[in-house]
Design a protein that fits this description.
The protein is α/β, with parallel strands linked by helices. It contains 9 helices and 5 strands. The protein binds 2'-deoxycytidine-5'-monophosphate (DC).
Length: about 210
């Protein structure tokens, strides 16, 4: 069983995907963390995230444990990740890792949940269930802003909203695997429902495939 969860930044897809994986005993892969880990490694090396050579080399050397570094969660790394993710060779390099995870989930799990931007369209077009999680830019920016404040970080709502719009535009307009809803995906708009209600709907959708 493969569940694809796609959507723009801060729509709540990570929370939904992780909870689905927990509920059904499936393996979970946060594919955004792969691009973030590549971006962090480039930034730490003083390299330009837009440099295709350096980015592709870094992607080739990426190992799953690199995605556990808490340093990948900063807004700077998020923006750099969307630059890295627009480089076709980086995407091609990370493709097999993601497909292998979906086809042969680790620890013999009976399924996998992957969240990202292109899971239902490019990585796993044959996924059993596809969910496109979305919310208005303002709601997403507010959530991200509160999350940053909650972590004790400095945050200004208007800057968070501007960053989100910049990332949305880059993720949706790139040539290779742009952020797009797969035609067979269920749309889950989380703007005006609670996280629990969003999870309940996602759960019912996945259950109906079993
Ligand atoms: O979901 P996130 O914010 O952690 O993703 C970080 C960046 O990685 C995002 O701006 C776009 C990119 N990304 C992608 O292009 N394809 C994916 N499957 C996941 C993330």
């Amino acid at each position: 069983m493969i569940v694809a969860v796609d959507g723009p930044a801060a729509a709540g897809k990570g929370t939904i995907a992780r909870r689905l994986a927990d509920r059904f005993g499936y393996a979970y892969l946060d594919t955004g963390a792969l691009y973030r880990a590549v971006a962090l490694s480039l930034l730490r090396a003083g390299a330009d995230p837009a440099d295709p050579e350096a980015a592709a080399r870094t992607a080739r050397n990426l190992h799953l444990p690199d995605t556990a570094d808490p340093g990948i969660r900063t807004p700077e790394v998020g923006l750099a990740a969307s630059v890295v993710a627009a480089i076709p060779r980086v995407r091609a390099t990370l493709l097999d890792l993601q497909r292998n995870f979906a086809r042969r989930p680790p620890d013999g799990r009976p399924g996998a949940v992957l969240d990202g931007r292109d899971i239902g369209t490019v990585i796993c077009p044959g996924a059993d269930r596809k969910i496109f999680v979305t919310a208005t830019p303002e709601v997403r920016a507010r959530r991200r802003h509160l999350e940053l404040l909650g972590r004790g970080e400095h945050s200004i709502y208007s800057s968070v909203l501007a960053d989100l719009r910049e990332r949305d535009a880059r993720d949706a307009n790139r040539v290779d695997a742009p952020l797009r809803r797969s035609r067979d995906a269920m749309v889950l708009d989380t703007s005006f429902i609670t996280a629990d209600e969003a999870f309940r709907r996602a759960c019912a959708f996945v259950e109906s495939a079993q």
